[in-house]
């Protein structure tokens, strides 16, 4: 089940990981082993949580990589659902995935 308007994972990272620890973007990027630009793009919603970033976040802040990817999936799915009526496809008959 998708959330109606889930926050971007970058917002969660900023508010629940960096701010409580008083980490700057530069400090957090160094600790995560990524560039400041890479982390800044994620925090500002210009990029998403990749599988590799999910592992890095898990090691640095806890939760599982799957939890970080789930947050990204919920955000992505909510955005696509907003425009689902404009997505036109041909429905095929036959065995379907459950």
Structural class: mainly alpha
User: Could you state the order of secondary-structure elements as H and E?
Assistant: HHHHH
Q: How many domains would you count in the coordinates? A: 1
Helix segment count? 5
**CATH architecture label name:** Orthogonal Bundle
Main pleated-sheet profile = none
CATH superfamily: lambda repressor-like DNA-binding domains
Q: Would you tell me which CATH topology applies?
A: 434 Repressor (Amino-terminal Domain)
Helical fraction = 55-70%
What is the topological layout?
Elements: H1 9-18, H2 25-32, H3 36-43, H4 51-61, H5 65-82
Helix pairs in contact: 2-3, 4-5
Structure, described:
By secondary structure, the chain is mostly helical. It has one domain (9-78): 434 Repressor (Amino-terminal Domain) (Orthogonal Bundle), CATH 1.10.260. Helix content is 56%, strand content 0%. The chain contains 5 helices and no strands. The longest helix has 18 residues, at 65-82. The mean pLDDT is 94.
In short:
The protein is mostly helical and 98 residues long. Helix content is 56%, strand content 0%. The protein has a single domain, classed as 434 Repressor (Amino-terminal Domain), CATH 1.10.260.40.
Keywords:
98 residues, mainly alpha, 434 Repressor (Amino-terminal Domain), 5 helices, 56% helix
